[in-house]
Design brief:
With about 500 residues, the protein is α/β, with parallel strands linked by helices. The chain folds into 4 domains: about 220 residues, Rossmann fold (3-Layer(aba) Sandwich), CATH 3.40.50.1100; about 90 residues, Rossmann fold (3-Layer(aba) Sandwich); about 80 residues, ACT domain (Alpha-Beta Plaits, 2-Layer Sandwich); about 90 residues, Biosynthetic Threonine Deaminase, Domain 3 (Biosynthetic Threonine Deaminase, domain 3). It is built from 20 helices and 18 strands.
Length: about 500
């Protein structure tokens, strides 16, 4: 099976439009992790993503009649830009269906390249369904973003370049996975030419469709897909890509949002480039795999697959980076409500930087403080917590508490003693113009809203923390209402962050 892909990859005549991107040495990552770490710079393509390779290679195979009909694609952004650029060069009409949650930077780029953009739905699946309807209606040619042999072959040219550019032995290549086109192309080529090189796929833990498929030994559709790494937010691995990866893949790593944010910072510090979340997946997975397997002295390649990110998202990423690097502990600490108690607390953590401190008077005997403290690692964080508890402090470690990191750190001090029977819910919904207003309209006229927190992160999703005054007799009605609301949510009434600071 790899042999057929090797022939396709070697015959991919794409370099009149595609750049052969460099492989950069990452000195800081290499020193920190004790390995020789190299980064393949696909962010330096003309559309700032590897997707140009597959899109152009597939379109080069169009017949004269197909070119006359035009092409259509569904994409969250990077495939769309590759399509638009290839279509402009070839003089072919291109219609791109994109989710309404697509970052503006990607929409604007497609339009600037001459692509006709149609915004439909909140995710790739909705956009894909509309694109297929357009194919039926207009007889245009559908160009799949990943599940097409010629697209896979185009992405596989990345592997051909890596093996030509790096003469020394390579121990592993880390590749991001959404639908699997890039990973399948790379794996097919490398396993045929250099079978000793490990191919390790990396997915967001909230969009791990490949891992789920490998566990079940069949393709599965995820019920819910996280949107942070929008370039890899795919609910089901491709049919052809899964067929290839089952035979060629060595391992799969899943990473958290915080770990992705930390990887974006790592890439910036070594290359001065700003990767989009999906573009930093490979580095995040590589770091995790090194630590879990104790690798030292190896040569490792991570592919920086794209750099199409709204600038506004950097606020959110910078907030989460230190936690992702395991360099910040987020703690709820109970101290005496008396002069000098905070000074005494700071004395105990002397030598560590206090990164954040939130407090408001709420009780004459005890003060609950929300504090961020600089640490060196997970083990150092545990040492800090143990030390504080040994000194008699009540400490709740909230470093992994999503509600605390997203909302509470921006809300500390707001207690409403008059509120009775409050229930707290955290929601996530597709972010687009009017999304927040729609959310509020859906809530209006039900129960009294006792608390509300929302921050726009410049991302594809909105996150809201809501308190509702719900009489005991309305519990069943609340459950029914939330079901009908049809937003992803979880109840946080028992979350210690809420109990400490807002109840």
């Amino acid at each position: 099976m790899p042999e057929s892909y090797v022939r396709r990859i070697l015959n991919a005549n794409i370099y009149d439009l595609v750049e052969e991107t460099p492989v950069d040495f990452a000195p800081q990552l290499s020193q920190r992790f004790g390995n020789r770490i190299l980064i393949k710079r696909e962010d330096l393509q003309p559309v700032f993503s590897f997707k140009l390779r597959g899109a152009y290679n597939r379109m080069m195979k169009l017949t004269a009649a197909e070119k006359q009909r035009g092409v259509v694609a569904a994409s969250a952004g990077n495939h769309a830009q590759g399509m638009a650029m290839a279509a402009r060069k070839m003089g072919v009409r291109a219609v791109i269906v994109m989710p309404r949650t697509t970052p503006a930077i990607k929409i604007n780029a497609v339009q600037a390249l001459g692509g006709e953009v149609v915004l439909v739905g909140d995710n790739f699946d909705a956009a894909s369904a509309h694109a297929m309807a357009l194919v039926e209606k207009s007889n245009m040619v559908y160009i799949h973003p990943f599940d097409d042999p010629e697209v896979i072959a185009g992405q596989g040219t990345v592997a051909m370049e890596i093996l030509r550019q790096i003469s020394e032995p390579i121990d592993a290549i880390f590749v991001c996975v959404g639908g699997g086109g890039l990973c399948a192309g790379i794996a097919a080529y490398v396993k045929y030419v250099r079978p000793d090189v490990k191919i390790i796929a990396v997915e967001p833990n909230d969009a791990a469709c490949l891992k789920a498929a490998l566990v079940k030994n069949r393709r599965v559709r995820l019920k819910q897909v996280g949107l942070f790494a929008d370039g890899a937010a795919v609910a089901q691995i491709g049919k052809e890509t899964f067929r290839v990866l089952k035979e060629t893949l060595d391992a799969v790593v899943t990473v958290t949002t915080d770990e992705i944010c930390a990887a974006i910072k790592d890439i910036f510090e070594d290359t001065r480039s700003i990767a989009e979340p999906a573009g930093a997946l490979s580095v995040a997975g590589m770091k995790k795999y090194i630590e879990e397997n104790g690798w030292r002295g190896k040569t490792l390649v991570a592919i920086e697959s794209g750099a199409n990110m709204n600038f506004d998202r950097l606020r959110y990423i910078s907030e989460r980076t230190e936690i992702g690097e395991k360099r910040e502990a987020v703690l709820a600490v109970t101290i005496a409500e008396q002069p000098g108690s905070f000074k005494q607390f700071c004395h105990l953590v002397s030598g560590r930087m206090v990164t954040e401190f939130n407090y408001r008077y709420g009780d004459p005997q005890q003060a609950h403080i929300f504090v961020g403290v600089q640490v060196a690692s997970d083990a150092d964080r545990e040492t800090l917590v143990t030390s504080l508890r040994d000194q008699g402090y009540a400490v709740e470690d909230m470093t992994d508490n999503e509600m605390a990191k997203l909302h509470i750190r921006h809300m500390v001090g707001g207690r409403a003693t008059a509120v009775k029977q409050e229930r707290v819910f955290r929601f996530e919904f597709p972010e687009r113009p009017g999304a927040l207003a729609n959310f509020l309209n859906r809530l209006a006229g039900t129960w009294n809203i006792s608390m509300f927190h929302y921050r726009n992160h410049g991302a594809a999703f909105g996150r809201v923390l809501v308190g509702l005054e719900v009489p005991t007799e309305d519990r069943r009605r609340v459950a029914e209402f939330l079901q009908e609301l049809d937003y992803d949510y979880c109840e946080e009434t028992q979350n210690p962050a809420y109990q400490f600071f807002l109840r």
